[in-house]
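Dear U.,

For the methods section draft, I wanted the exact inputs and outputs in one place so we can describe them consistently. I've listed the two proteins in the order they'll appear in the manuscript figures. Please don't edit the token lines directly; just add comments below if something needs changing.

First protein:
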Amino acid sequence: MTASAQKKDPIEAEANASAAEAARDTRAEILEQSKDAKAAVSKLAKAEKSAVNDARKTWHDFEVHVWITNFNAIEFGPWKRERNRGKSRQFTTDMDIFAEVVENGVRTGVLGYRKELWKDTSGMDKRLVFKLFSETLNWKASMDMMLGRSIQQTLAAHGLPVTTYSINTSEDDYLVYLERSAHKWPLLPENFSFFLMEGGEPKFYRFRRDFINLGGDYTLIDQHGDHVGHIDGAVLTIGGKWRCKVRGDHADPRLIQVMKLFTGLIVFNRQARRHVKALARDIHDGRIKPDIQRQEADLYMNPRRIR
């Protein structure tokens, strides 16, 4: 070894020692930051899990009360219907308010349907259209019977009535399609399925009629098979009364609006099934010519068409 190399050795050794010490300090700092990050992630995960658990323990409750007469504060009185039409374009001339929505003891909304369209027509012109309004008659949601889709599914199910409804809510950019399942055995409960889009991802639900059913009772079930809501119909009422609840972690405003409209549909469900079944039979036998109203046809139009 030369004299020059011997002189460099102490300097190189010191440099190597300094580098090793710096590396140890950096490594310790990174490990400490990693521990802090893991602790923060773990803390956040625990907080999210706690929030979900708290939401599951809470329930959103409301009631739907069906009126048996038109003698109510919404419709009864001089020029009342004309004033209601002035409040909302959705309040048509044949709109009949038949139920109120009560939350925490206070009326927060009303349900109506187009009476002339359902009561005073027949054949393919007879169609159910529901609307949900706020207490001040601001439009919140609509539900239309889709006769074309209903008859299509009923014919495919060999006459088993498969009713389909299109729901448009003020809370959503998407239409919601509520459909009675064709998978229905005699004496077994019916199911109505739908899904909501959330962040580009569909969330699937179904209303299943309860096995022990006295007042029109349905259970809301999510895509994992969990019971996340219930519609409990009261037996000893003149018009009809349903107590409804949704588990807190599923209490999306859109889902609640779908549930309110579906509760109103329960009143007409049997009549709607008979109507669709009779139409499908008459079309199959050639007794009537199929025709779809313009309002329903618009809902089938291609959104990508050239306008």
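Second protein (the one for the lower panel):
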Amino acid sequence: MPHLPLSIPSPPPVLAQFNVGPLLIHTYALCILAGIVAAIIITQRRLGARGGRPGVVLDVIIWAVPLGIVGARFYHVLTHTGDYFFSGANLWNVFAIWDGGNALYGSLLGGAVGALIGCRRHGIKLWSFADALAPAMLVAQAIGRLGNWFNHELFGLPTTLPWGLQIESSNVAIQNAYPKGLPEGTLFHPLFLYEIIWNLIGIVIILVLERRLRGHGSELRWGKAFGVYLIWYGLGRSWLEALRIDPTSDGFLGIPANIWASFVAIALGVALIVVQARRHPEPETSVYRPGWVEKPEAPSSGSSTKKKPTDAEVDQNSDLTRS
């Protein structure tokens, strides 16, 4: 079956990784890192506009990102046990994050723990941080999904649509990913692209809702913007997982774990919006916890520690000089 003229080619497998001197660089990892950097920049700008001090997002992210990566990997492994635990399996592959296989829901769980630690250490309200993060998360996920394209993964049912994704039957990037029984040249739904588009639409929805509801009692603060994120991403991920046929998550009652997790995300998003709307009908006036006083930074070595004189001290010195 020849590929249709407008079908989407998968990148050559050689682009999935390359060497820089002695280092082996994985394109998938670069996409994840680019998404993290973009999310940090966006979240800092949003939180800074709401009163957060410069650099506070980095102070929180330093806890959230490592725990988010650990959570993402182990959630993936625990929901794909057949890919990692079998006779003759190399158990070190459990930690091979660069080969793909990082579950967003696992990153949310691990990242939430890290964000809670970071926010408590620096006086930021967790839900204020989550609201600033909400559209930035969708940006990071959209960028990260490009890594799935380079890894020849995250594709769906066969299709004859002109934007079908080309997947080679050997699929050297992901073993046993090509569905058995399908002829060479079969095109598949590009789920990675669908999710990118879905995430970009979600960014617009959150930003528009924030602008429309600003100044009203129903404004998207107190965690409600993050609730919209959970609902939107859960809805999109549930139907995308239903189309997916490359190695997918283990299931319960015939439903993949990622679809169950999507249902949970939707329910949590709805609950978060309803509960926070009742608990906090008032506008949010600060992203800091009540009573929090920012600790002064220690002076750098060699810098002057002399305090700026107060007005009373200036007047006193002037009197002494005149006398």
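Candidate sentences for the figure legend, describing the second protein: The chain has one domain: 13-84+91-296. The longest strand covers residues 17-20.

Thanks,
Y.
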